[in-house]
What does this fold into?
Amino acid sequence: MRVIQVVVVVLLAALGTRLYFLQVVNGAYYAEKAENQRVRRLTIPAQRGTIFDRNMKILVDSRPTYNVILSREEMKGRDYGALVAPLSEGLGVDEEALRERFDELARQPAFESIIIKQNATPADIAWVETHQGIDHPELRIEQQPQRHYLDNGVLAHVLGYVGEINPKQLERDEYKKKGLKPGDIIGQEGIEATYDEYLRGIDGYREVIVDSRGQIQDTIKTVEPQPGQDLVTTIDLDMQLVAEEQLRNSPNGRGVMIALDPNSGEILVLASAPTFDPNLFSQNVKTKEVRQQIAALFRDPTHPMVNRAISGRYPPGSTWKIPMATAGLEQGAITVKNSRLVCGGGIQIGNKFTRCMGSHGSPDIVTAIRVSCDGYFYRLGLKMGVGGIMKMVDMFDINKRTGIDLPHELISWTPSPDFKKRFNPHDPEWRDIDTVYASFGQVYDFVTPIALVRTIAGVAVGGKLYVPHLLKEVKQTVAVGDPADAESFRRARPAKTFDEVYAERSDPSRPNPKVVHISDENHQTVVEGMWQVVNNGGTGTAVKIDGEDIAGKTGTAQVVSLGKDVGQNKDHSWFVSYAPAFHPKIATVALIENVGFGGKFAAPATRQFYEAYLRKQRGEPAQAPEQIAQNGGQKSGAKSQPKPRRN
It folds into this structure.
């Protein structure tokens, strides 16, 4: 009996001690755990802001869709792998995609729910509702916003796309500071990425009571989400469609067209071809077919995922002669009154003869620009020297990023002795022949189209280099919730212009615009030469439109040495321009890859663009891209008017 009494006392003491720890020491913990089994917090995703063009036409919006959601709370202690087969069969989701998603979950901290399938069909919804009670209480159907982009890849490189934040991004400080968590949708490319903090709203939530099977019985509290801010861009969708049509109709379907306002830097058009469908990337769980399509995009030898406008480097060819002429005049290598240099059909440097495409005698600078005399610019380059060319590069910031509000902008490669050492380590010494090459846009010159058009626009307006940008305005959002409830209240988010955003984000040492000195006389001389390129028998007559003043410059850039420039190694075709010539409102660059002469391909594409632009300026209905393509370069029918003379 004594033994039994001792055992009973020990057992009662153990039970009492355990009861004390459960109810007193850890009471709050278990009470919260029990409450969590009864009360659930379900996220209400905030809708991302809509993106508009400058005329308030929708470029990107969010549309409601039904998604199949898996609650991780219900999966504690259960094997995710056991769900792969039934979910794949019942919902038609790719097994491999599900396995990868579940493997990724195992490496991430727990969170409330994940998307298993987007755009659920009525059959999917019926399957979930049938199996939700007993077989799969972890599943539910929710209506959530999904991003929708324009068809046919229009503006894909500008708009970018969204996607679920990945583990590598979550490790970076910039995302940690924003309080992002696994499962959050963020901008991954383009404007979606650059202005994600404005476009992304603040999620709300519902606190609900659930039963033992996970079924919602009642709602305790609802905190409404705050939508993201709408963005108005500088893009003109009508003109963007025209530009993209021109690139699609080009011989290789590869190239760039950019148009901007030289008086502000606002980008009206930014087209890069070939393009891609950003809607493929907006799906969280991708089908096998979509995954194959995405993989094919990255394997495509034409590189449709690359934004050629900001990440493509090309030899500029004779378009380089415009900053060369401007800098040569400003540096005093030539003057307006004494600008004649010998063409000579080319130039002999040592045992190397570098030819000109013609024999132009001793032209002045205006004539040299009009006929694109290589021989003239060889000699101008030698007069300036490599130091003068480097000063020109610094003058126009060609060796810096323009600051365009898109990710992945590359810096142009520009001529210098240091660059030659890296570019050609077997012959690192800079020689006169290298200066000759550098003076007409070959060998040591590789510029991005956006850097080139910024330079040309700066020349057009007499020395103001504006930052090219796509943001016009961020719209205001209203406050959401009860101000007395700190947890649910969302403050109003103010409207902002591009200048305000730029001032917050940019380096103070880079003002907008950068002002460079170009004298009125030198400016008018270069403009006159570019006007004659188009309107006085120059190399750009394919762009001439009666009654309109377009100034421009052709460029034919060698990719390989003469004799090998055939097929995919043909020259790149360039045309840079602005209009009206003496009071510019628009500046453009057109690049068609590997097709030949600038005057034969890029110039006619620019002509089609200007005809559409001028129609719109006159208030006429915008013409459909296919109709513009069928014009075949015919005149717009505008009455001829006398050319306004320079001041």
